[in-house]
Design brief:
- The protein is built from 17 helices and five strands.
- It has 458 residues and is mainly α.
- It has two domains: 169 residues, Orthogonal Bundle (Cytochrome Bc1 Complex, Chain D, domain 2); 176 residues, Orthogonal Bundle (Cytochrome Bc1 Complex, Chain D, domain 2).
- The protein has a three-stranded antiparallel sheet with strand order 1-2-3. The chain has a two-stranded antiparallel sheet with strand order 4-5.
- Strand 2 and strand 3 form a beta hairpin.
- The radius of gyration is 26 Å and the shape is globular.
Length: 458
């Protein structure tokens, strides 16, 4: 059958052209916005997502956080390695713990009999947003975990000996640096706390509590902050840890970054490079496979083949001074060299990066994720940010020079990301910088000038 189509009138032609133009414009619009619409972005954070701590406990916690009375030789505080000057960290790859003097790269290894025997074996994690209600693991190997296994709310190295009544995983974590010889306790023979630490962390905590309650100025503060404290003898390590957790969880709560504003609906909050980086992060590159959820971490454990150095965290009867990460906690061989996926808000403020601080910049860390084994091989000792300690110079990089151990590290890589261009790497870094809060550098309390013990404040 032959069909003859008549010529359309000029009015009909205009209508056809108009419809085609609208259809083209619609398709163009969909094409332009589709990548952003397809991204699985987290919900915005709100105050309700965080534990709300009592103001009196927060104020007390600030003083305890900066008070060296909690350390064996009374020469280091929690704040020494998590200082306001370094945005809740210490600015170095591996810190100098008990026995050192100063802060950051200017911290020395001490002198004489007090000088340090080794560096702290892992990078000091930052404190940002650890008061979030969904935080399940603390420490880079997750050795403090929310759990009901032992009737005290947590699975920790103290097992059943962890006291009840801790208000958060953050409070449970607070307890263990106090019992670490390298971090705060000191060496056996130097003080009672160091001797107790050799027997077990739970022997340390009553000694620290006794010290604190013997400082007269602290007692009324504890009575004001805790309903169950009516006199000095009521002060225990639980109240001390809960107060410090209250301070950390409040002081380092921050979610007013450009990315947070974007999640709240302000599409102008991110510039073009940051938006491209966000699309790569949540799309093509797949960073969000691990850095997922509102805290930008699924709290899993991943092996990245970061170059090993420093003293390691040696397992009992292990002939090699190394750090096997999560395996030391789980006893599962597949967990060898795995470490907890970090939270990323304010990540640009807390260099260096990795469980041992091997990567000095965000760009270096991004590039390592893209080619972990190649990055491990190309890494150089100069990339580590280490305060000079001359008597440790010969051993600082012995682990990295151990060919067999480094081969084992490189054999355990859990991620496989696609290749990207230098421009795309720059965009990802731009997005990571967009995670920095506008008020991140303006903490509400900061460093106190003095503490009740009268000890000097770093």
């Amino acid at each position: 059958m032959n069909v003859t189509l008549g010529k359309a009138s000029s009015g009909e032609e205009c209508r056809v052209i108009s419809v085609r133009a609208k259809l083209y414009a619609c398709l163009l619009s969909v094409t332009m916005v589709a990548p952003a619409m397809a991204l699985d972005l987290p919900d915005p954070l709100t105050l309700d997502d965080f534990i709300r701590f009592e103001p009196a406990q927060v104020q007390l916690g600030q003083l305890l956080f900066y008070d060296k009375i909690l350390s064996g030789n009374q020469n280091i505080a929690c704040a020494t390695c998590h200082h306001h000057d370094f945005n809740g960290a210490d600015g170095v790859s591996l810190g100098i713990g008990e026995g050192g003097v100063g802060l950051g790269m200017h911290r020395s290894g001490g002198t004489g009999a007090d000088r340090i025997l080794e560096r702290v074996p892992r990078n000091a994690p930052a404190l940002w947003n650890l008061g979030h209600r969904d935080v399940r693991f603390m420490f880079l190997d997750g050795r403090v975990e929310v759990s009901d296994d032992f009737g005290n709310g947590f699975r920790t190295p103290a097992w059943i000996f962890l006291p009840k009544g801790l208000n958060s995983a953050l409070a449970a974590q607070v307890l263990f640096p106090m019992a670490s010889e390298t971090e705060m306790a000191g060496q056996p023979g130097e003080n009672l706390i160091a001797g107790a630490a050799y027997e077990g962390a739970h022997y340390v905590w009553p000694l620290i509590a006794e010290r604190v309650r013997n400082v007269d100025a602290y007692v009324p503060m504890f009575i004001d902050a805790f309903d169950n404290v009516n006199e000095a003898s009521d002060i225990t390590i639980v109240e001390i840890a809960n107060a410090i957790a209250a301070f950390e969880g409040t002081e380092y709560r921050n979610f007013d970054s450009p990315f947070d504003k974007y999640l709240e609906g302000d599409e102008t909050a991110l510039n073009d490079a940051q938006k491209r980086g966000m699309e790569l992060f949540y799309g093509k590159v797949g960073c969000s496979n691990c850095h997922a959820g509102p805290m930008l971490s699924n709290q899993s454990f991943q092996a990245l083949a970061l170059p090993p150095f420093g003293p390691g965290r040696t397992l009992l009867n292990d002939p090699i001074a190394r750090d096997v990460g999560r395996m030391a906690v789980s006893d599962v061989p597949e967990d060898a060299y795995r470490f907890r996926v970090p939270f990323l808000r304010n990540v640009a403020l807390t260099a260096p990066y990795g469980h041992d601080g091997a990567m000095p910049t965000l760009e270096a860390m991004v590039r390592h994720h893209l080619k972990p084994r190649e990055s491990n091989v190309e890494w150089r000792a100069e990339m580590a940010i280490l305060p000079p300690v001359p008597w440790l110079a010969s051993s600082d990089f012995a682990l990295c020079d151990n060919v067999a151990e480094n081969d084992r590290v490189r054999s355990r890589v859990d991620i496989d990301l696609p290749s990207v261009t230098d421009a795309e790497i720059a965009d990802i870094v731009a997005f990571l910088n967009a995670l920095t809060g506008e008020t991140a550098l303006q903490r509400p309390m900061g460093r106190p000038d003095t503490v009740p013990s009268g000890l000097p404040v770093d």
